[in-house]
Amino acid sequence: MAAASFSFVHLLSPNPIATVRSSLTKPPTTSPIPFPQSKPKPGASLSSSPNTTVRAVATSGNKKQTKSPRNVPSSPAPIERAEALDLYEDMVLGRCFEDMCAQMYYRGKMFGFVHLYNGQEAVSSAFIRPLARSDSVVSTYRDHVHALSKGVPAREVMAELFGKSTGCCRGQGGSMHMFSAEHGLLGGFAFIGEGIPVAAGAAFSSKYRREVLGDESCRDVTLAFFGDGTCNNGQFFECLNMAALWKLPIVFVVENNLWAIGMSHLRATSDPEIWKKGPAFGMPGVHVDGMDVLKVREVAQEAIGRARRGEGPTLVECETYRFRGHSLADPDELRNPDEKAHYAARDPIKAFKKYILENNLATESELKAIEKKIDDVVEEAVEFADASPPPPRSQLLENVFADPKGFGIGPDGKYRCEDPKFTQGTAQV
Ligand SMILES: Cc1ncc(C[n+]2csc(CCOP(=O)(O)OP(=O)(O)O)c2C)c(N)n1
Ligand SMILES: [Mg+2]
Question: CA 19, 25, 29: angle at the middle one, nearest 5?
Fold first, then answer.
């Protein structure tokens, strides 16, 4: 893994996919609008407002790097040990949790569609871990790992997947609809693009609180995650326009995994370089290697900082890859084995582990201890989910009707669905 230096990367190389892409697309004629702080000054560190938990860390240009407490790295590490281990742990949690989801799905413990995130962990960890609790994240149906990175406990995410009452939505949301107001997770969304206006609304409310209601302490930022396929959807364009027009504190994070179910991004999109749509709306557009957690982190810091300082939105295209099929029901027979092998060799977790070891940020046994800890967390999550009760039948009608009287609740005040005849369709409702 290269040391993170801030740069606008247009195309990854050497990369067979990028070669295909560059032969299909004209070279960029416009330069992306640079971030105000795109050239880190020696000794500069990111400023953090009093309301944030953004950690100030040395940038790659900082020669007075804080060294690992135990070792002197051969080259300056642009990340401190504690943050590196936090990112590593979060990525391992995402991977391990999802591998367990696959097992549980095939054992019949989960219902409906389940879309896994394996391979894309660097994006979730690098963007979400630095956020404050009061910041918001809006996800898609590929939402479990975003929920974990935002701090929703693994046992609550697993219980939600099992449809149990102890899940973060009391078993009512399931895989595609993770939500936790407490953790600022404003939802997974099954319809593509549906979350983007919700994210724009959340960002608008932060700005409104600060500038209209005079809440000076409100510096909240919203991250909207979505895929490459979603960028051809109208809501994406409408929200880019509004966000730029009103300088909303939002970052649009495109997880370009090159596929929308079985549709190749290159076949579906007139100009596959998604980042270019940012400058078209007057906001910075950045392409970053989404398999390199340090590069994503650097771009994330800039974009989040920009939003927090009130300087407006950023569009970030993270080039990443999903290691599994579109969902667990997809046999994944369409994608070229060479393409899969190319990205498998760039596994972001393995690459970051190598980086940590090479830069003496931790020892092999310390990383093993983290992996063991995460195994235990995931095991415990499964036991908790399995042992939890299902939601009561009366919950079926919650959140369906504003006033369920006359629909689900009879004149006696009891839920009709508690009547065994209800499911047989013979209850007198
Ligand atoms: C409005 C809408 N249209 C179509 C679909 C069907 N659909 C489900 S996933 C998907 C592809 C989305 O691809 P992408 O945005 O790249 O996300 P990824 O699955 O790669 O993470 C489509 C078209 C949908 N869910 N919602
Ligand atoms: Mg995609």
Answer: 120
Residue nearest (by alpha carbon) to ligand 1 atom 25:
191
Does 27 fall in a domain?
no
Sign of CA dihedral 98, 99, 100, 104: positive
Classify the phi-psi angles of 72: left when phi > 0, otherwise alpha if psi is within -120 to 50, otherwise beta. Answer: beta
pTM of the model: 0.81
Q: Both 145 and 237 in a single domain?
A: yes
Nearest ligand 1 atom to the CA of 227 is: 15
230 and 313 both lie in a single domain: yes
Q: Tell me what pLDDT residue 50 has.
A: 27
Which two tokens mark 372? Answer: 């063991």
Alpha carbon separation from 416 to 198, 263, 354, 390, 400 (Å, rounded): 34, 45, 59, 18, 14
Flag residues of the chain having pLDDT under 50: 1-76, 429
Closest listed ligand to the CA of 117: 1
257 Cα nearest atom in ligand 1: 20
* Within a domain: 152: yes
CA 208 / ligand 2 centre spacing (Å):
33
Number of domains in the chain: 2
Ligand 1, pocket residues at CB < 6 Å: 142, 190-192, 226-230, 255, 257, 259-261, 326
Return the pLDDT at 226.
98
Residue type at 168?
C
| CATH number of the structural domain spanning residue 164 | 3.40.50.970
pLDDT of residue 14: 32
Residue pair 343/119 in contact by the 8 Å Cβ criterion:
yes
Q: Give distance in angstroms: CA of 113 to centre of ligand 2.
A: 16
Range of the domain at 419: 393-424
Q: What does the pLDDT read at residue 143?
A: 98
- The per-residue pLDDT for 400 is 72
In the chain, what's the furthest Cα-to-Cα distance?
77
pLDDT confidence of residue 406: 55
Please report the pLDDT score of residue 56 as a whole number. 25
The pLDDT value recorded for residue 394 is 74
Same domain, 331 and 412: no
Examine the domain organization and report whether 220 and 122 are in the same domain: yes
